[in-house]
# Entry
Amino acid sequence: MERYTSAQCNWLESLQEKRKRKEKMDIEAIARMMLALFLVSMLSMAFGVNAQSTQFQWKQVNIDGFGDPNNASAVPLAVFGGNLYAGTANFVTGGEVWRAAECMNWVQVSIDGFGDPNNVGACTQEVFNDALYVGTWNEVTGGEVWRTSDGTNWVQVNIDGFGDPNNVWVYPETVFEGNLYTGTENFATGGEVWRTSDGTNWTNVLCCDGKSTGPKNAAVFGGNLYQGTWNYNASGEVWRTSDGTNWTQLNIDGFGDPKNVAVFPCMVFRGDLYAGTINEVTGGEIWRLPTLCIGGIAVPVDKFGLLAPYVGLASTIIVAAVATTTYVKRVKRRKENQ
# Structure
């Protein structure tokens, strides 16, 4: 009997020791988890602050106007053959195309206005079938499209304005399903969209019902081509096509605000399509079309993700609180059962 009692006491003592060791291990595990989560949150916040502190460290890599003050704008628009290409707007001698390699040593690679001073802008460029295409702004004979395969020698590949001098601005936009798409700005009869499969022969694909002054800034997203428009008489629109011929409008005009006179569906980010607007009254807006949005209804970006920088810290606090509460309840329950 005494032996049994002694053995039973030894067993009880061993169980208590095991409980103590487990409680100690639980405390250490929770402490390590809380410390790890805290460090992750702090590092995330630190890297976020570091990114914000460095994002404004810009450095100019050309001289003003490339040495000509009449080059009123300079826009880097294409990478071709390992070089960066930029176009200018010049209302005196005509737009220019400049090229730079890694060291940002800029060289002019086109003659002013491609030989016509009425080509005042050379500010839109696209790469297609191993060649660089540049569109011009010409209010006299109509916009032109110029092509180079070596970055130096250029040839015009359309007739001025595609036969209509009211197509004053021609801008190669994007490549979709083996075709190069080019929009035009036309204040008389409405902007147009043209495409080519060989870089020479063009077809008008009749986008946007002719309601806009200029279809601009197309984007490929989810197997479809999205086209934004300018419309100073009404408001900007977004159109979509899956075959390059049949188009469907995807938004209500101006996203419900007639002051949004232009829409640019120009960027795909993390699986969603983003569009910007021009609004000279209340300010430009950014809209997002989610991947799962079957109906094509865009939602304002400013209603999503505003608390993203705080998610890590909030998660840490919640997990730590839950872990601590669970542990306290566990300890209390064990003491009640003893």
